[in-house]
Design a protein that fits this description.
With 288 residues, the protein is of the alpha/beta class. It has 2 domains: 163 residues, P-loop containing nucleotide triphosphate hydrolases (Rossmann fold, 3-Layer(aba) Sandwich); 104 residues, GMP Synthetase, Chain A, domain 3, CATH 3.30.300. Helices cover 37% and strands 24% of the residues. Helix 6 crosses helix 8. The radius of gyration is 20 Å and the shape is globular.
Length: 288
């Protein structure tokens, strides 16, 4: 049996989370057109009779500007340490030289497959040029071209990965699809709606803390806090006559119900915690 950790690295918005969701066949990581949506390392487990691959989505690689960013880059470092294979994902329309600099700076000690993504948005000529460019790099074992959004031939995609994985016993039981608690995914689905519905910089100033998660006979009761920096941000999230928070709650509840396959009662509160992104204790409390 082939088993191992396959960790996904790349710049913000290269399509790491979309790729992970496509490979798993369900939504495990939240996605948004905004950059820096992923803040945690999200492990998912793909088990078949002859292999178990533990995929990790990681935050987009950036220069840290505050403590939260540092925690995000720590997640990238931990994924570098236990990888058996690295998937280096690049948007075909990015600046390849800049991406290459980032990939080289990772100083990988494991084989890497470069995944050239968003090929549905580029000419055949450009795709060929990108393949040639990355094929010549010393860290690159193979190049795969995909459109994570439009779909992937999973068997074809997994084949080169399986060739590089060691043989061994599975790490997780066959039913597990992640090592993260359900509460984590619930808070992420709420956070995704904030990215979707609230404009400008506000999503980057918010965190979500699930305070209560109770499974009752007919439904799941969830109470969550949306944490912001300032009163003005709180006012925007609540909206005029509470319109925005209602909409946020309704849309998040639908996503959570689809994820849990159960009816959900969701209550949201907005709380102001100035400078939480720089506060070690608060970051810990919010799961960072």
């Amino acid at each position: 049996m082939k088993t191992g950790f396959v960790n996904i690295f790349g710049r913000p918005n290269a399509g790491k989370s979309t790729l992970l969701n496509t490979l798993m066949g369900e939504k495990m990581a939240i996605v948004s057109p905004k950059v820096q949506t992923t803040r945690h390392r999200i492990k998912t487990i793909l088990t078949e009779k002859d292999y178990q691959i533990v995929f990790s989505d990681t935050p987009g690689i950036i220069e840290p500007k505050y403590k939260l960013h540092e925690k995000m880059m720590d997640a990238v470092k931990s994924a570098l340490e236990d990888a058996d294979v690295a998937l280096l994902i690049v948007d075909v329309n990015e600046n390849w030289q800049e991406v290459n600099d980032i990939f080289e700076a990772l100083k990988l000690k494991v084989p890497a497959i470069v995944v050239i993504n968003k090929i549905d948005r580029a000419s055949q000529e450009k795709i060929k040029e990108a393949v040639t460019y990355f094929e010549e790099k010393t860290y690159c074992k193979k190049v795969i071209t995909v459109s994570a959004l439009s779909g992937i031939n999973i068997r074809k995609f997994l084949q080169p990965i399986l060739e590089l994985l060691p043989e061994g016993e599975p790490f997780y039981s066959g039913d597990d699809i992640s090592d993260l608690p359900t509460k984590f995914f619930v808070s992420e689905l709420i956070r995704e709606k904030i990215y979707e519905l609230i404009s400008d910089e506000i999503p980057y100033h918010t965190a979500v803390l699930v305070r209560e998660f109770k499974e009752k006979t007919t439904l799941v009761k969830i109470i969550a806090d949306i944490i912001v920096h300032r009163e003005t941000q709180k006012a925007i999230i609540i909206g005029e006559k509470g319109n925005m928070i209602k909409r946020l709650g309704t849309e998040a509840r639908k996503e959570i119900e689809a994820f849990l396959q159960q009816k959900v009662f969701l209550e949201l509160f907005v709380k102001v915690k100035p400078k939480w992104r720089e506060n070690e204790m608060q970051l810990k409390e919010y799961g960072y």
